[in-house]
Design goal:
Layout: H1 2-17, H2 22-26, E1 30-36, H3 55-61, E2 65-67, E3 70-71, H4 77-86, H5 90-93, H6 102-105, H7 112-117, E4 122-127, E5 141-143, E6 178-181, H8 185-188, H9 191-203, E7 210-216, E8 223-226, H10 254-260, H11 264-270, H12 274-301, E9 308-314, E10 319-320, E11 326-327, H13 333-336, E12 340-343, E13 358-360, E14 364-365, H14 369-377, H15 393-397, E15 407-410, E16 417-420, E17 424-428, E18 434-438, H16 456-463, H17 476-479, E19 488-490, E20 506-513, E21 519-524, E22 530-536, E23 540-547, E24 551-556, E25 561-566, E26 572-576
Parallel strand pairs: 1-7, 1-9, 2-13, 3-14, 4-5, 4-7, 6-8, 19-26, 20-26
Antiparallel strand pairs: 2-12, 9-12, 10-11, 15-16, 16-17, 17-18, 20-23, 21-22, 21-24, 24-25
């Protein structure tokens, strides 16, 4: 009898140690995974702008390892989020641009939340984690409802737009606009609703360990937030970006100058809105910080507060006039340097002692997150497609650990990239243009050293550290070359859309959104029901694998029907104008 009891105890202990068992999953740490959209280094712990108000970023930094030299793997929402969540770098997937849907390029890859769910976690999320989609199969639960594949809850915006910046033409993103709203945080919705839902999950966590994602959308455009977040920033006291210099492009190669001068900054200057734009960005960061505070408050009250790994990352930075640029998409530090903080409680399998708060100035990439979380939690790697990136656990454990690595930022074409080291940064353009900066002495990258013979050895060393043998740009034409000469059709309007016929032969269709604003695609099934199939960004294209006789609807982001098309016997290109 005693031997039987002893055997049962031994088996139970063995089960607790085996990876992938329920017993081991119960002992794994929880994960709070926070993403912030379009946030550069304008938070107090990074010192990017002297007027920023971010007490909750300060609070989290005081509890975390803060990577002060962290960079995005791509300076655009779609590629960077796809890379972080898939563990596949852009130069390995071929996903370089916002116009490329994740599941079109990587239809079968297991994303981070599903991988953790496959190993005993409950994965849930809210807000923008991927680029304008939820990817429902990757999550156990989501807010808003994952069946709609739309990560945005209701957000209050002005009825009449634009408010502050007149449209310069179809080239201008419709959301480039800003101003205070006379509403409460709750009435505003958006990130307030997201942070509220996440707080509820922390208050009542599932029985399993959780992977809980919180996507804070601000300071993504448009910069409309409740008025109280504008009030600390009087317009006549606004300080312009500290990195701005009027002649900053004089030593930049032609490819860099072309990338920088995208018409936004001159348009904003012409209308006298530069300070107001900076004000809107600071107000939106202040609001995002308040929403972060709600989540941190909920974590502190949560029954799992002492067992939760906290990761916060920004997807990429944002220019507000530096290098004569407004927006993102560049290889300069204003766009690549992002907030990245990790706090690990004691008892984690990969770091039993946990983390001590502190700063690390070694170059790292937010792309390293997936790989690092696998080590920290003891969750095994994917078998079919190992997760990329570097394990940051040695840096989390010891600030003085040897770290001979760099961080790569891939721009929107193979051959265009930036390399961030500890002392120098390098930018390469596919036509051969180069930039080299000594960031220890020149943090705003004002002096291009690429032509300085004294730095020839450094230039050559950095040049060799870029992506090797990158995949080609994975466009719809590349995926379906038979459509290159396919006929082009427009949407049918003012005629009722017929339901889809019973499924016919499979054909490819390219939909091109020529509008300067997002649109939504919906499939009209044979019963006449509408099934949302995701949103398309402005000036983007998508490859649909559909069938002859299928009916597709196209709506504006506000839900206004723009028209429909019925798939003909051969593939076509559909223009949405």
């Amino acid at each position: 009898m005693h031997r039987s009891i002893h055997l049962i105890i031994q088996l139970a202990m063995l089960g607790a140690l085996l990876p992938g068992t329920e017993a081991s999953a119960a002992r794994r740490p929880d994960i709070l995974f926070i993403a912030v959209d379009d946030l550069n280094d304008w938070i107090s712990p990074l010192g990017g702008h002297p007027q920023t108000i971010t007490p909750h970023f300060d609070r989290l930094a005081g509890q975390s390892v803060l990577f002060t030299n962290a960079h995005c793997i791509a300076p655009a929402c779609g590629p960077v989020r796809a890379a972080i969540m898939s563990g596949v770098a852009p130069w390995r997937s071929g996903l370089y641009q916002n116009t490329q849907p994740l599941r079109q390029v990587m239809p079968d890859v297991t994303l981070m939340p599903r991988h953790f769910s496959n190993h005993g976690y409950h994965s849930s999320g809210s807000g923008k984690i991927l680029h304008y989609v939820i990817d429902p199969p990757s999550w156990d639960a989501y807010f808003p409802d994952k069946k709609d594949d739309d990560p945005f809850p209701f957000t209050l915006y002005p009825e009449k737009r634009p408010v502050s910046l007149p449209r310069g033409g179809p080239w201008q993103y419709i959301e480039t606009d800003w101003g205070p709203l006379d509403c409460s945080d709750e009435e505003f919705g958006g990130d307030h609703a997201v942070s509220g839902w996440v707080a509820e999950q922390l208050a009542q966590p599932p029985e399993k360990p959780f992977f809980l994602a919180c996507g804070i959308y601000r300071p993504h455009e448009p910069w409309f937030v409740p008025r109280k977040y504008f009030e600390p920033f009087p317009i006549d006291e606004i300080q312009l970006p500290p990195g701005y210099r009027a002649d900053d492009l004089d030593d930049v190669p032609p490819a860099g100058r072309k990338l920088a001068r995208n018409r936004y900054f001159p348009h904003i200057l012409w209308h006298g809105e530069w300070r107001a734009g900076v004000q809107g960005y600071l107000a939106s960061i202040h609001f995002a910080d308040a929403m972060l505070g709600r989540v941190l408050d909920a974590l502190e009250k949560s029954p799992r507060r002492d067992s939760t790994i906290v990761v916060l990352w920004g997807d990429h930075g944002w220019h507000l006039g530096e290098k004569e640029h407004w927006q993102k998409f560049t290889g300069w530090r204003a766009c690549t340097r992002v907030p990245f903080l990790i706090a690990v409680p004691p008892g984690c399998p990969g770091l039993p002692e946990g983390t001590r708060p502190g700063r690390r100035d070694q170059p790292v990439s937010t792309f390293d997150t997936f790989r690092t979380l696998l080590t920290l939690t003891g969750v095994p790697d994917r078998e079919d497609l190992p997760v990329g990136g570097r394990d940051l656990t040695p840096l989390l454990a010891d600030p003085d650990t040897d770290w001979p690595h760099v961080a790569i930022t891939q721009l929107d074409h193979p051959g265009d990239f930036a390399v961030s080291g500890k002392d120098f940064r390098y930018i390469h353009y596919r036509n051969g243009g180069e930039e080299l900066y000594d960031i220890r002495n020149d943090p705003y990258e004002h002096v291009n050293l690429a032509g300085d013979a004294a730095h020839a050895a450094t230039l050559d060393r950095m040049r060799q550290l870029g992506p090797q043998d990158p995949e080609p740009l994975n466009t719809p034409e590349a995926l379906a070359p038979e459509l290159a000469k396919a006929p082009r059709i427009r949407l049918t309007r003012d005629v009722e859309a017929p339901p889809s016929v019973a499924e016919g032969a499979a054909v490819p269709v390219i939909v091109r959104n020529m509008k300067s604003e997002p649109v939504r695609l919906l499939w009209l099934d044979p019963d006449g029901s509408r099934e949302p199939r995701g949103e398309m960004a402005k000036a983007s294209q998508r490859l649909l694998r559909t069938h002859v006789g299928a009916t597709w609807l196209v709506e504006s982001a506000e839900g206004k029907l723009l028209g429909h098309f019925v798939v003909p016997p051969k593939g076509v290109q559909v223009k949405v104008e």
